[in-house]
Design a protein that fits this description.
Elements (H helix, E strand, L loop, with lengths): L6 E4 L5 H12 L18 H13 L3 H8 L4 E6 L2 E8 L7 E6 L13 H5 L12 E6 L17 H14 L5 E5 L2 H12 L4 E6 L19 H16 L2 H8 L1 H10 L1 H15 L12 H14 L2 H13 L10 E10 L8 H7 E9 L6 H4 L1 H12 L4
Parallel strand pairs: 4-5, 4-6, 6-7, 7-8, 8-9
Antiparallel strand pairs: 1-2, 2-3, 3-5
Helix pairs in contact: 1-2, 2-10, 5-6, 8-12, 9-10, 9-12, 10-11
Length: 387
């Protein structure tokens, strides 16, 4: 019988016919209208999406992007009937801490390309051997090279369970975890489910609600954090339509996003624009190559539908929103200025064992891409006393 626990080497190699089909679809895009002088105020800006897709069709080099991805050792294995793809980049320092990095939506393991080197080879990036990590970066089930999920029930808690099983399968009996967006929520669940083996968890989006039973939920909240809560309220009012459709009817949305590369580009790029610290200029934070590498991972794997199903499965299971309190493992938070969800520290302390808290004056939701130096610095500082 085949060994279902087997680990197989993997490299990214998209067939030529998939790329030819993509070029054909891009060339035949039927563009929507847009009212004059509205920019991004109604959603993805037509002029920018056209510019990005023209670059995608005529300039972008996917084979070069493949080469950058393939610079890192990649593998696949099967967990609970689901193919799981992961980068496994071991440091040359044997005493390095194993670290499970989990991405979110609409991201991918491509988010981590700027931080894999500093984490695994710190001496080449201003650190010391004592800062080294062995990095395991899975593509979440249903995302990217893990391929689509095929059965109901793949909630964010199940993603966390998959990460735990992967780290055990790789032989790591003591390790850390880090994530943002869905990756932060998965990391939080890992803190609940595998406290025996986790030395600590670090998140660059800390999701926490007011302390249970608090007479005044705003006691101890700073003026800056009150302003953050106001920004979060505005986001809930005007920026969460994607959550509603992805959380209730993802299949209907998937027809357009799976059939149209320009539609997929618009759907994903708008989030990179809106959730980053780009001040209205998306390319001040992300190059076209970076944006398109991430978009291509969804396109060539056909995983936009299963990626959005994570919202639906998690919402239906009551697992969307503030985490349940009671994480006892040491917890670190890195709070970037334009993050879409920034819980006050006292709220986080009511749910987590906060031992490290860093705030950063710039950067947004995609910290590993926007502020890699600051994120790596926060991760190093948090884990230093836990080694």
């Amino acid at each position: 019988m085949p060994n279902s626990n087997a680990i197989h080497q993997f490299s990214v190699a998209v067939p030529d016919d998939v790329l030819a089909d993509l070029r054909d679809r891009l060339a035949r895009t039927r563009w929507p209208d847009q009212m004059a002088d509205t920019g991004w105020t109604y959603g993805a800006d037509l002029s920018y999406v056209k510019e990005l897709c023209d670059y995608w069709l005529n300039t972008f080099d996917w084979r070069a992007a493949e080469q950058r991805l393939n610079e890192w050792p990649q593998y696949t294995t099967e967990i609970d009937g689901q193919n799981i793809h992961f980068i496994h980049a071991r440091s040359r320092h044997e005493n390095a801490i194993p670290l499970c990095l989990t991405h979110g939506w609409p991201g991918s393991v491509a988010e981590f390309l700027k931080i894999l080197g500093p984490l695994t080879d710190p001496e080449a990036y201003g650190g010391t051997a004592a800062d080294a990590f062995h990095v395991v970066a899975p593509s979440m089930p249903g995302y990217g090279f893990s391929g689509p999920t095929t059965k109901p029930g793949w909630t964010i808690e199940k993603v966390a369970q998959t990460n735990i099983e992967l780290m055990a399968r790789l032989g790591y009996s003591s390790y850390g975890a880090q994530g943002g967006d869905w990756g932060a929520i998965a990391t939080s669940f890992m803190g609940h489910l595998d406290a025996e083996h986790l030395i600590g968890i670090h998140m660059n989006m800390v999701v926490a609600g007011p302390p249970a039973g608090a007479e005044n939920p705003f006691e101890g909240v700073t003026e800056t954090e009150m302003a953050y809560l106001g920004e979060m309220g505005e986001f809930q009012a005007t920026g969460t339509g994607y959550q509603q459709i992805q959380g209730t009817r993802p299949q209907t949305l998937a027809y357009g996003l799976t059939d149209s590369p320009s539609g997929l580009a618009a759907w994903i790029t708008e989030k990179f624009y809106a959730w980053s610290d780009c001040n209205g200029d998306i390319e001040s934070r992300f190059s076209k190559d970076e944006l398109l590498t991430n978009i291509m991972i969804y396109w060539v794997t056909g995983t936009i539908n299963s990626s959005t199903r994570l919202y639906c499965e998690s919402m239906r299971a009551g697992l969307f929103g503030a985490m349940r309190p009671g994480v006892t493992v040491p917890t670190g938070g890195a709070i970037f200025a334009k993050e879409i969800y920034k819980a006050p520290k006292v709220w986080a302390e009511a749910s987590f064992n906060i031992t490290h808290w860093s705030t950063h004056p710039s950067g947004g939701h995609f910290a590993a891409m926007e502020e890699p130096v600051a994120l790596v610095g926060s991760i190093r500082e948090f884990f230093a006393p836990l080694r």
